[in-house]
Amino acid sequence: MKLITGDLSPYSAKVRMQLYAMGIEDVEFDLPASFFMGKLSDYSPIGRIPVLEVAEGIIPESEVIADYLDDCYPEQSLLGSSPWIRSQVRLVSRIADIYLMNNIFMALPQINRKTRVDAVRDLLTGQITRGMGALEQHIGRGGYAVGNRLTRADCTLVPALFLCERTVPMLDVENPILATTHVAAYWDEIQGNEFAAKVLDEMDRGLRARQDGTERKQIEAAIAKEKAQRP
Ligand SMILES: N[C@@H](CCC(=O)N[C@@H](CS)C(=O)NCC(=O)O)C(=O)O
User: Fold this and answer.
1) Does residue 115 share a domain with residue 68?
2) pLDDT exceeds cutoff 90 at 193
3) DSSP secondary structure string, 70-111?
4) For the chain, which end, N or C, has fewer CB atoms within 10 Å of the first or last residue's CB respectively?
5) Residues 180 and 105 reside in one and the same domain
6) What is the CATH number of the domain that holds 11?
7) Global pTM?
8) 82-118: b or e for each residue (b if 16 or more CB lie within 10 Å)?
9) Using CA positions, which residue lies closest to atom 2 of ligand 1?
10) Is the CB of 48 under 6 A from ligand 1?
């Protein structure tokens, strides 16, 4: 299997954390130059990462990939042991994907103060705050997102909270985790988990590469190599 993934991509980090926690090691990681050239849709019509490549074809969408991995390795599944727990894992994962990460992604173009439209920034950050409020009610109280062990809810939430903490302040809006009690306690504690720490390190590396220009240089080199290899 091959995973098309990027260090900073939170949806990719979610799948990587699941792979690490399930102990699945035979997955190669790759990020083709076509992603940076806006041509990933030649390979995967949705044109976004992560994408899992398997013998039969490609699987886009982090949640679909997560289900596929659980189906392939039921013994190591991180979905939970009862219908109730599984519903809560899916719920927290959905809050992180739809109400946090999706709105943060849509708000990111508003980071540039010169081109920012305040009404757009306010609309989207208002939705992030609302999602955080819902998460505050649903999140577990025992150090994990749900129940008393690591689940797929943690795999989605850890990258989402990293994104929240590190990018929302760039919009000149306070990190919404700071206004919470249970999410803040969870965030403090989960960073000590080995699989969470591993993906947080990777995301941090990705953010530094973006900010110090290393990523731009890597992209330019990958695009030049790709062009040179064309017939
Ligand atoms: N719903 C998708 C979202 C994936 C997504 O938005 N990925 C971002 C990177 S984290 C991406 O590929 N963006 C490129 C683009 O929007 O063109 C999932 O869960 O996998």
Assistant:
1) no
2) yes
3) HHH-GGG--S-SSHHHHHHHHHHHHIIIIIIIHHHHHHGGGG
4) C
5) yes
6) 3.40.30.10
7) 0.95
8) eeebbebbbbbbebbbebbbbbbeebeebeeeeeeee
9) 61
10) yes
CB distance 8 to 206 below 8 Å: yes
Give me ligand 1 centre to Cα 137, in Å.
27
User: At which residue do the structure tokens 């390190």 appear?
Assistant: 201
Question: Count of domains in the chain?
Answer: 2
pLDDT tens by residue, 108-164: 999 999 999 999 999 999 999 999 999 999 999 999 999 999 999 999 999 999 999
- Ligand 1 atom 5: the closest Cα is on which residue? 48
- CA 142 / ligand 1 centre spacing (Å): 31
pLDDT tens digits, one per residue of 24-64? 999 999 999 889 888 999 999 999 999 999 999 999 999 99
Is residue 209 assigned to a domain?
Answer: no
